């Protein structure tokens, strides 16, 4: 079956870009298409055209266009993902920068009366609680093992 070559060579036609994406081959050569060209393709219109063409198209052309549509979709998704990821990382950096700036004190010196306790004659730090009462009683014995320190004569050994 034959088809009109104007489908692929039309100035405003997106099928030329889709066909190039299909026939260029691997992913590395797909990069030859610019971001502007890839993003200019309207995939909804292209899919509608391939599924219901106004004139009969060759099966080989339809299969190439379908592969090209999937490759263009993959590239559009990749461009969108990298853009969103870049925006997200720049927002994270901005938030970290704002958070770091808000940690610093507005005035780095404090008044003496705000950080000094008044003298209290009844204040005691010592706790008069025996250590045995603090320890939990269980099957293990938590007594320290003390060994007396004995100095021996090195020549006797």
From TrEMBL:
It is found in: Nucleus. Residues 1-107 form the Rad21/Rec8-like protein N-terminal domain. Keywords: Nucleus. GO terms for biological process: replication-born double-strand break repair via sister chromatid exchange; sister chromatid cohesion. The keyword Nucleus applies. GO terms for cellular component: cohesin complex; nucleus. GO terms for molecular function: chromatin binding. InterPro entries: Rad21/Rec8-like, Rad21_Rec8_N. This is Rec8 like protein. It comes from Glomus cerebriforme. The lineage of its organism: Eukaryota, Fungi, Fungi incertae sedis, Mucoromycota, Glomeromycotina.
């Amino acid at each position: 079956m034959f088809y009109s070559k104007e489908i692929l060579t039309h100035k405003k036609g997106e099928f030329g870009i889709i066909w190039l994406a299909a026939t260029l081959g691997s992913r590395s050569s797909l990069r030859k298409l610019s971001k502007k060209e890839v993003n200019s393709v309207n995939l909804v219109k292209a899919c509608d055209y391939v599924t219901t063409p106004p004139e009969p198209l060759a099966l080989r052309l339809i299969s190439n266009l379908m592969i090209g549509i999937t490759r263009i979709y993959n590239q559009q998704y990749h461009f969108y993902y990298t853009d969103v990821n870049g925006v997200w990382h720049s927002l994270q950096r901005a938030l970290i920068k704002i958070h770091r700036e808000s940690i610093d004190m507005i005035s780095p010196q404090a008044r003496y009366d705000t950080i000094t306790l008044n003298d209290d004659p009844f204040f005691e730090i010592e706790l008069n609680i025996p250590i045995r009462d603090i320890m939990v009683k269980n099957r293990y014995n938590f007594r320290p093992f003390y060994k007396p320190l004995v100095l021996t004569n090195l020549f006797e050994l």
